[in-house]
Each structure stands twice: as C-alpha cells, then as structure tokens.
Write a structure and sequence with these properties.
alpha+beta, five-stranded mixed beta sheet, 3 helices, 5 strands, 30% helix, 27% strand, globular, binds zinc ion
Length: 94
C-alpha cells in the first residue's frame, strides 16, 4: 500500500519497517527512490529528507510503500507527469 508521508514523525516511525521511500524535490525537479533505512531518507540525519518542512514550504512530497515495484511505479508516474528526473539513490540502491 502506498502512503503519503506529511510529517517527519511519520517517517521516523517507519524506520524499522522494510520499505521504500519516494522523495520528490520540487525545486530540484527530482524524484528519488530510497530504502526507508537510507540515511538520506532519515529526517533525524542532517542530510536526510524533512517531510514536515517540505510540506510547510511546499517544496516536496513523500510516499512510502513496502513494495519496491509500487514505489517505482509512483516515482515514474510523478516524474513523467511533472517532467522531473527520476533516479534511484546510489547510496541505498540494492
Ligand atoms: Zn538512499
């Protein structure tokens, strides 16, 4: 099931759950696929995504799924609709 993440807490709570994060960055026109345990998908990390802030400033959106196929489909759909670049994170790609 695909779930939209709108707060940091939601994502932090999912940290130990296996799954994938689709991170959409509006200013960078970029869609990135991460595993949930990637440091770039960790709101607590200084380099991690910050869903609360992105929501507040309307700079991005985030989706989580336990299915890689589903996450990839969502990422491809968004990148196609918005003409954004879609990439799989090189750090957590596996
Ligand atoms: Zn990653």
């Amino acid at each position: 099931m695909l779930t939209e993440i709108v707060t940091d807490e939601q994502l932090i709570d999912l940290y130990t759950t296996p799954g994938y994060l689709v991170a959409v960055d509006y200013p960078k026109k970029e869609v990135k696929l991460h595993t949930i345990d990637c440091m770039l998908a960790d709101p607590i990390s200084s380099v991690g995504v910050k869903p609360s802030k992105a929501r507040e400033n309307n700079t991005g959106e985030f989706w989580v799924s336990e299915s890689r196929d589903e996450a990839v489909s969502k990422a491809e759909e968004i990148s196609k609709n918005k003409c954004y670049t879609y990439t799989v994170c090189p750090i957590c790609d596996r």
